[in-house]
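Section 3.1: Structural characterization of target chains.
Under the original work plan, the team committed to producing a structural model for every single-chain target entering the pipeline before any wet-lab resources were allocated. The record below documents one such target. The sequence was received from the expression subgroup and is listed exactly as submitted; it comprises 283 residues.
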Amino acid sequence: MTKILKKTQLSENVFRMRLDAPLIARERKAGQFIILRTDAEWGERIPLTIADADADAGTIDIIFQTVGASTKELASFAEGDSIADLVGPLGKPTEITDYSRAGDVARRGWVVVVGGGIGVAPAHPIAQAFRAAGNRVTAIMGARTKELVIMEDEMRRACDDVVIVTDDGSYGRKALVTEPLKECCEQSPKPDEVVIVGPPVMMKFAALATKPYGVKTIASLNSIMIDGTGMCGGCRVAVGGKTKFVCVDGPEFDAHQVDFDNFIKRLGTFKAEEAAHKCRLFG
């Protein structure tokens, strides 16, 4: 059992929870995730990236959006309640490189981290790690409206530059994330690496935006997962024509090699089962 120490509602359907998980807090690295179950008997396994952690306090922070029965059930939990199962850290950590040029003090490495919607949460520790390694980090944060922008203060502390775009222009620039991303790639020198995290469609077009410039681009995928060990095959994804498993081979892959159309199609595999599960819980 894992106790919920703090719960904050960030927007209508987005919540942040601080969990008592000292072993995970001590071992986790940027890019890794956990899997939890709210209920030991009926609970669905929910993969969530670790948005932040405090090794000294023994806590991790998760951020999630209520999109189905299980996340709605998780959102109903209060501070002091306990989650039935929590396992992690899972997945391969982000490969962190200091791209600074040896002997050139003025030329720090440059990494652009793109977070779309709730994807800002997993982007946060990645930005922290790249900056700690010595790089200049630019964050591009996208949301539909101002009310859906999350973790702005944390990202400003973690990054050298922050660009915020909204679909409706209610905050920051009225644009999609691909617009400032292309502007970054057109600069000289261009970014050494781009990391994209967010809705699959956003990641698909962000990858298409960077490809003509030859900028290394990594996508963090959040696929359907069941066991988190690579045994069930539910999280398989095509990368460069080969089958990979997000839970053990990822969650990060070369975005220019990911078959996003197939990935998006697979995300709808269990819609009927999800509807039945919702009826069982709330019907």
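The two ends are 27 Å apart (CA to CA).
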